Amino acid sequence: MKSICIIKPDDWHLHLRSGEAMRSVVGMSAAQMGRAIVMPNLTPPVKSAVQARAYHDEIVRALPEGSVFKPLMVLYLTDNTSALDIQEAVEASEVYAAKLYPAGATTNSESGVTDVSHIYPALEAMQKAGMPLLLHGEVTDPEVDVFDREAVFIDTTLSQIVKDFPGLKIVLEHITTKDAADYVASAPKNVAATITPHHLLVNRNHMLVGGIKPHYYCLPILKRKQPHQNALLAAATSADPKFFLGTDSAPHDKHAKESACGCAGIFSAHAAIELYAMAFDGVGAIERLEGFASKFGPDFYGLSRNSEIITLEKQSWTVPESYDFAGSEVQPFFSGDEITWRMQPC
Ligand code: DOR
Ligand code: ZN
Q1: In the predicted model, what is the mean pLDDT of residues 225-251?
Q2: Cα 131 to averaged position of ligand 2 atoms, centre (Å)
Q3: Which residue, 13, 113, 122, 294, could crosslink 7 as a Cys pair with Cβ 3.0–4.6 Å?
């Protein structure tokens, strides 16, 4: 049986939700990850350092006994986020980044930014303080096709931010296109990207062929296998430190997804590192997993790498059909299917 040992990974893009929903899922991330960048798109969103600290403490209280998992909090940018709000976030030891959701781009983004010019003072303060800007990289113009929204965002918005803030650390989150992979690879070294397990393992055919599968619906939406999924696999396994792990695991109640207007999000925290192992192994690059999963993220954020080691074995197991989720159910990615790698308990 093949097995590998790697430094314990971190998840640089995770949705944990709050309350009972958060308590249902946080243990799964804590079992695999050393740290996670926790997305702030709650209702109401996490807009201040005070709210970020309260959310941090709520997560820590919910951790299993003895867990050393560390949630890294994120400020939700709005049209009204000021340089002072950023300063307070920089001074709060719990906050590590700020997130730009274009208003209306995705789940709970209604309070997001309507025009990037509104947050230029905040971006100036972030650049000065070394605080990373995390981007949901899609335009919201109704005239732009949903499959083109990431590429148009890069051309119209991201390239402008990169030009105007040459010293700002930027993470283009959950990239889904060859356009994004190419842009980030050739951008200055302050620009990086996260890649999800679902964008590595599936494409839009999985969502649309043989019937609409709402559990594959996420934003940015799954794209074509060629050139996009293949370009993401190439980027993730390239050993280029600009690309690192961010699951975008986004739990929703099963019934909220299986609906006439199903919500966006794929839950992958139950098997995050195993899913990535399967994707890397599938293209003969398992030896490149550790850099992507455990080294490049902390290096980009300027944090130390984890000191613990985990073991992954090539061993098939079947993912449950569902997990408990705040008194209801969440359907995990690969539910009922086989995953070919398994993390071993320490
Ligand atoms: O699929 C997604 N789900 N994409 C996002 O950007 C948000 C996330 C969520 O919060 O459910
Ligand atoms: Zn997300």
Answers
A1: 98
A2: 19
A3: 294
Statement: residue 161 has pLDDT above 70:
yes
Give the N- to C-terminal CA distance of the chain in Å, as an integer.
18
Best residue among 16, 107, 140 to mutate for probing ligand 1's pocket (most ligand atoms within 8 Å of CB) is: 107
Q: Is the beta carbon of 250 within 6 A of some atom in ligand 1?
A: yes
User: Could you read off the pLDDT of 54-109 as tens digits, one per residue?
Assistant: 999 999 999 999 999 999 999 999 999 999 999 999 999 999 999 999 999 988 99
Longest CA span, the chain:
55
Residue 2 alpha carbon to ligand 2 centre in Å: 33
- Among the listed residues 11, 179, 240, 248, the single catalytic one is 248
21: which 2 tokens?
């929903």
Residue in 333, 147, 150, 338 with CA at minimum distance from that of residue 247:
333
Indicate if ligand 1 lies below 6 Å from the C-beta of 231. Answer: no
Q: What's the CA gap between 5 and 29, in Å, rounded? A: 18
* Residue owning tokens 């090539």: 314
Model confidence over 277-334: pLDDT tens digits? 999 999 999 999 999 999 999 999 999 999 999 999 999 999 999 999 999 999 999 9
Percent helix / strand / coil, the chain, rounded to 5: 40, 20, 40
Question: What is this structure's pTM?
Answer: 0.98
Outline where 237-322 has alpha helix (H): 254-257, 272-282, 289-290, 296-301
10 is catalytic: no
How high is the pLDDT of residue 1? Answer: 60
